[in-house]
Specification:
- The structure holds two protein chains of two kinds.
- By secondary structure, chain A is α/β, with parallel strands linked by helices.
- Helices cover about 40% and strands about 15% of the residues of chain A.
- Chain A has a four-stranded mixed beta sheet with strand order 1-2-3-4.
- Helices cover about 25% and strands about 15% of the residues of chain B.
- The two termini of chain B are about 35 Å apart.
- Classes of the chains: A alpha/beta, B alpha+beta.
Chain lengths: ~270, ~150
């Protein structure tokens, strides 16, 4: 993690301390005032951050104990990105509600969805759902989703993302070994990110919400050299389509390999 | 006016003059011109091939312009049922609901369909990622902002 106030040194400690802290907040606010808690099972845009081992199971137990529903936001992490259909499956839980979009139609047309557990759905057998929208269940979007889900199943793209993970990690390790400006890296399925540092102490080259001239130059280099990705703060994303070939994946990391000479030059020793 | 016959400079200029870009001070927008996208690549109008290493906004999971999906979309258009109001039953609605219930683990068996990915307001976590194309201004002053999810 980029700026790591520590809840502990091990996953077990981090999980325990996080959940203890959360329970204190719940008790302070009053569990009866909280209908649900929404999480990204793997935090996406803020840095591809999977939770510590055991956290999701502990969270679900804690929320169940207090009668609070768990909503998992799978908009970004869902539909195979992490090598499972939904990222919450890495934690062996099933939430009460799941939200999804993006991969549901691969963005060919806009469509989102909310999945309800039987218990939540049953509540609305007799109670009115006071909500709706003009484009609810848009037929063309659903026809597109049907075709996209068909391709995902036929081409086993969820399994493919999991199978490609070791190759992406190997490419990241190769770059990390070659470039002193690489701080750390991680990926789950084909959900990946690399972090850039400015010195041997491991300080990020740019702070939260900030930038650094070398990162701006890196972004320009990537664009000029035919690689589209997000460059932000001290990080850049590695989230190719789940259909990417091994050669294409290598091509992407080869461009990054050359680009990282820019951030190596900004390394302060 | 046919976009395919428009020169790249005119296309960029009209986009900047008459359309509004997200997450950006309009004066500093530098949009990436794109004419076509297939598989893992985008293609600029001038023929530059760009490897998509972020699936755009982490969303084009099956790659761009998958031929089977394009064929299904064309066939869907010929069925003449693009939109009907939400109180209807349609075959696509029936099939996607049942398929998602089958694919999703546990007892996630009922699905409500919306029109897009949500855009939650986000506090303190800052502005969205800068793409090679879009720059933002004064990020340090952004206290509350939404970000693409």
């Amino acid at each position: 993690m980029p700026y790591d106030y520590s809840f502990g040194a091990t996953d077990a400690e981090r999980t325990e301390q996080n959940l203890r802290y959360l329970e204190e907040v719940i008790m302070c606010e009053g569990p009866q005032t909280i209908a649900a808690m929404i999480i990204e099972p793997v935090t996406g845009t803020n840095g591809v951050l999977p939770p510590p081992a055991g956290y999701l199971q502990g969270l679900k137990r804690l929320l169940d104990r207090h009668g609070i529903l768990l909503i998992c936001d799978e908009v970004m992490a869902g539909f195979g990105r992490t090598g499972k259909l939904f990222a919450f499956e890495h934690g062996d839980i099933v939430p009460d509600i799941v939200t999804m979009a993006k991969g549901l139609t691969s963005a060919y047309v806009p469509l989102g969805a909310m999945g309800l557990s039987d218990r939540v759905a049953a509540h609305f057998d007799k109670n009115v759902f006071w909500g709706g929208l003009t484009y609810n269940a848009h037929n063309f979007a659903l026809q597109t989703a049907l075709a996209v889900l068909g391709v995902m199943q036929e081409e086993k793209l969820v399994e493919r993302a999991a199978a490609m993970e070791p190759m992406m990690r190997a490419e990241m390790e190769r770059l990390a070994a070659r470039h002193r400006s690489i701080r750390t890296h991680r990926c789950l399925g084909l959900f990946g990110i690399m972090e850039v540092q400015k010195n041997r102490r491991g300080e990020p080259i740019a702070p939260y919400n900030g930038s650094h001239p070398a990162m701006n130059q890196l972004a320009k280099f990537l664009r000029d050299n035919g690689l589209f990705t997000f460059v932000r703060w001290h990080t850049f994303m590695c989230n190719p389509p789940l259909t990417i070939s091994e050669d294409e994946l290598r091509e992407g990391f080869a461009i990054l390999d050359r680009g990282l000479e820019i951030t190596d030059a900004a390394f302060e020793d | 006016m046919d976009a395919k016959t428009m020169d790249t400079e005119t296309m960029i200029a009209l986009c900047k003059e008459h359309t509004f870009y997200s997450w950006a001070a309009q004066g500093s927008v530098d949009p990436l011109p794109v004419a076509r996208a297939e598989g893992s690549y985008l293609y600029t109008p001038d023929g530059q091939k760009i490897l998509d290493f972020n699936s755009q906004l982490m969303c084009v999971n099956i790659g761009h312009s998958h031929p089977k999906v394009l064929a299904a979309m064309k066939a869907a258009i010929d069925e003449h049922l693009l939109y009907v109001y939400p109180g209807t039953a349609t075959e696509a609605r029936a099939r996607v609901g049942a398929l998602l219930a089958e694919m999703a683990p546990g007892d996630l068996n009922t699905f409500f369909f919306t029109s897009a990915a949500p855009r939650p307001m986000r506090t303190r976590s800052g502005p969205p990622a800068s793409t090679p194309g879009a720059r933002r201004s004064s990020p340090a002053t952004a206290r509350t902002t939404a970000a693409p999810t």
